[in-house]
Design goal:
This protein is mainly alpha-helical. The chain has one domain: Orthogonal Bundle (Lysozyme), CATH 1.10.530. It has helices spanning about 25-30, 40-55, 60-75, 115-130, 150-160, 170, 195-210, and strands at about 85, 110. A two-stranded antiparallel ribbon has the order 1-2. It is globular, with a radius of gyration of 17 Å. It starts with about 20 loop residues before the first helix and ends with a helix.
């Protein structure tokens, strides 16, 4: 676990995210973490995520948004578009047909949702939240997790509510704690935790520049 907070003053919760205009945000992220260049698809993908953040109620604070952007940056191989796992789960326990629909529930979306049980859970929760209707079933058609609006909702609500590991954004970003290293536990233990924390810092600086 990170010791980043030891000796530090308690973090003050930031106001909810509101971005208008976004030019300053894209100017900042072009330098870091994108290394000086942005493709239009990357701009479009981030724009869609920012739209989704602003539609979410209650409003999200910038640290949450920055960590979700950092996660998407890593999990989508910097494309900022929902993708299917490279190799489609081959060689992994979830990379075989499963469930009543005999689908493969490999990683998809902005956070690489895997396993049939998680597709079932995401369907039920997104229906309860009113994000999708009764006609949308990720268990029956897991490729729907690649739709940008569904992928964004899975990432946002999954990270807010702790769907993936039980760990959630508010565990690491709150009034007394600011730990983007430990926040990796929301998705995947401590895998690449320091690296993704660096992306978080770059996105947070860009959000602050644009707010």
């Amino acid at each position: 676990m990170s010791n980043a907070n030891q000796g530090a003053a308690p973090a003050t919760p930031a106001p909810p995210l509101r971005l208008a205009p976004r030019a300053a945000f894209f100017e900042c992220v072009r330098a870091k973490p994108f290394g000086g260049a942005l493709a239009q698809r990357q701009v479009d993908g981030m724009g869609a995520l920012l739209d989704a953040f602003e539609r979410t109620a209650p409003a999200l604070e910038p640290r949450f948004c920055a960590y979700m952007l950092a996660t998407a940056f890593h999990e989508t191989a910097r494309t900022m578009q929902p993708i299917e796992e490279y190799g489609k789960g081959r060689g992994r326990a979830y990379g075989h047909p499963a469930g009543p629909w005999h689908q493969i529930y490999d990683g998809r979306g902005d956070v690489q949702l895997t396993w049939e049980a998680n597709y079932v859970k995401a369907t039920a929760r997104l229906r309860a939240l009113g994000v999708i209707g009764a006609d949308v079933d990720l268990d029956k058609a897991p490729a729907l997790a690649l739709r940008p609006e569904i992928a964004a909702a899975i990432m946002i609500h999954g990270m807010l509510e702790g769907w993936f590991t039980g760990h959630k954004l508010a565990d690491d970003f709150n009034a007394t704690r600011d730990d983007p290293v430990d926040a990796r536990r929301i998705i995947n233990g401590t895998d690449r935790a320091e690296l993704i924390a660096g992306y978080h810092r770059a996105f947070l600086a860009a959000l602050k520049a644009a707010a």
